[in-house]
Amino acid sequence: MSEQRRTLGYLSAAPRVSTRPDAEASGPRSHILGVMRAFEALGWEVRPFIVGDRMPAPASGRGTERLLSANPAQTLVADLARLVLGGVNARRALRELGGKVDWVYERHATLQTLGRAFQHRGVPWILETQGIFFEEARRERNSLVLTGPARRMEVSAYRDCDVLVCVSRSLKELAVEKTGADPEKILVVPNGVDTVLFDPEKHHPRRHSAEFTVGFVGTLLDWQGVDLLLRAAADLRREGVYVSTTIVGDGPARKRLERLTDELGIQEHVAFAGRVRMDEVPGYIAGFDAGYAGHTERGGAMYHSPLKLYEYAAMGKPILASDFEDARRLARISGAGLLFRPGDLEDLKRALREAVASGPRLAEMGRRIRDACIREHSWEARIRDMIPRVEEVLARRR
Length: 398
Description:
The protein has helices spanning 26-41, 51-54, 64-68, 72-97, 116-119, 133-139, 147-160, 169-179, 226-239, 254-264, 281-286, 307-314, 325-334, 345-357, 362-376, 379-397, and strands at residues 7-12, 45-50, 103-107, 125-129, 163-166, 186-188, 212-217, 243-248, 270-274, 290-293, 319-322, 337-340.
């Protein structure tokens, strides 16, 4: 292999995770494309082995998450299929990429591991995780029955990989606690954003209301705290503080949120856009006055690094967010963040009042937060910072 240009094998075993434009799991899609494009921008050749791109389109399309969690028998069949596919795809990946890559970078998937076979042949195995998957899938998505095997495989992967990439310090601490992974090999690399796609100069705002609009983009799950936003907006409306809400995305909590909107009597002031194509998302964000990320604690910790946070910032939108690691950092370096205590309705209402009162300063806040995003939170900035840290860990482990 040429010393001038290194080659990365990008591995993703999850059948539902695809880079197709219509993939239901849009967050993972953005992340995969962001990482691969950043490596390429830094001079690497990237050879992907993404199982979801090789599956029939319906396997990664709309409704697949609901099918996985429809009933325990169906979930068990899916678990067994993942186990079988994991072994088959590990062999295929090695046949296709073996001897042709300098590193493999794998996005962790439940019940499946592709990078270990490369490691056995001397190729460094970098494993990236966004959470403690065996707990999330069982507790929050009801999409896992074989919890024992999933836990054993995940613990083994975290312990055995050469470098473990976690998206937050909280997740690093949790990974060490739950799996016994060596903290010396764990790198904290928060998520980033494609600042070329998410550029306010390129997109026309899509608005449903002339009122101050707080928007949310993402999968509708209970821990996203969208219900808290709706309750806060309803309370403030009774005070004479008028806030409309735009919700872009779909998920298990959508029907409950629609019912709550009706119960609160604010249906005329809430727009459910549903799941949209990734290239449509910037236009919706352009129509927000502030972007919402109201994550609540999960398993006693808040460890995610939400893509939405950086997408809002790249589009020049101040963030209205619960006080977690990434939001705190972004608010500090940009001065364009309004934070509230997680799950605290009264504190969210306080932050919303401040946001509405900031109207004349929103444009300046938007410029500051986009500048901060380009400078420190683009995917290229993330990967440029990560590569020498990976090299340092690998050198220590030789």
